[in-house]
Amino acid sequence: MVRLATIGTNFITDWLMEGVQELEDIQLTAVYSRSMEKGREFAAKYGVKKVYDSYEEMAQDPEIDAVYVASPTSMHYVHSITMINYGKHVLCEKPVCSNREELDLLIRAAKDKGVVFMEAMKNVHSPGFQAILEHLHKLGDIRRATIQYCQYSSRYDKFKNGVIENAFNPKLSNGALMDIGSYCIHFLAVLFGRPEKILSDSIFLSNGVDGAGTILASYGDKQAELIYSKITDSGLPSQIQGEKGCMIIEECPIIKKVTILYRNGESEELEFESRDNPMIYETRDFIRLIQEKKADHEYLEASEIEMDISDEVRRQNGIVFPADKIREQ
Questions:
Q1: CA dihedral 38, 39, 45, 50 (to 10 degrees)
Q2: Which residues, 6 or more positions from 101, have their beta carbon under 8 angstroms from its beta carbon?
Q3: What would the pLDDT profile of 258-281 be if each residue is shown by its tens digit?
Q4: Which DSSP helix (H) or strand (E) runs through 274?
Q5: Which three-class secondary structure state does DSSP give residue 90?
Q6: Does the N-terminal peptide bond of residue 253 adopt cis geometry, omega within 30 degrees of 0?
Q7: How far apart are CA 186 and CA 195, in angstroms?
Q8: d(CA 90, CA 108)
Q9: Contact, 116 vs 289, CB < 8 A?
Q10: If we measure between CA atoms, which residue out of 56, 62, 114 comes closest to residue 89?
Q11: Would you list the DSSP string of 11-66?
Q12: What is the pTM of this model?
């Protein structure tokens, strides 16, 4: 049984808990929040008695095996490294870090301690994504992919009225690239690996945060365009184009329907389990890695590629975070 603690008490942690409650090999044991009141309120929903307002103190609790980190991106490194140094497995919400330097330190520490550190990237752990990988060969030689996630943020109206919440605060390593853009980048990383080169452009808002952007990734024999936005909606699906057909993917990041349109006029809808909340799948994979004691696991490379692409996009567009410095453990 994996005894889990959480850092963060927002809606995303509730979504994770929906999956946790369905699984027999994991249970919530403790909750951390900067506000003891919010922590107790969250813990009460799940019948948990242990509540901390000090994450350092929680890290020293011997009755905790693993921690789910869902704090602002700028705090992912500090929270994760603290838990790892005390021998806790860590499932860290996307994007896994502010930059590649932080990620390298976390991966090295996790391997040294023999614990699992994994990014919580729900789209690539879902049955829909596995179906994509299993049927990709049917498209023949892949030439182009368009991966997009454009969603008018529920916080954008507040932003336009002068209320800057975390999602639009670049001081917290946030913005469109690091928020929903990370889904597109990680999707690409698992699908095709590391691109040979990228070109990118961003749309900036009044406080300097990026509200939308586009990335063109070149692989020599194929191209991919990543389109992401927190200030507009899109009615178009993602797609992967091959010489034998085109795969239509609805929706991102929650893959609900995948259809292959073949050049001969035939079509095929792929069959897979689909949920409105797919976070159970990443939790299952996290548990499996813990049970297999795989600190050096198959999901780390995609996170490394994701961070490298994000760093290069930020370099090209002049996006700088306070966290952009090599941290010492």
A1: -160
A2: 325, 326, 327
A3: 999 999 999 999 999 999 899 999
A4: none
A5: strand
A6: yes
A7: 12
A8: 13
A9: yes
A10: 114
A11: HHHHHHHHHHTT-SSEEEEEEE-SSHHHHHHHHHHTT--EEES-HHHHHT-TT--E
A12: 0.96
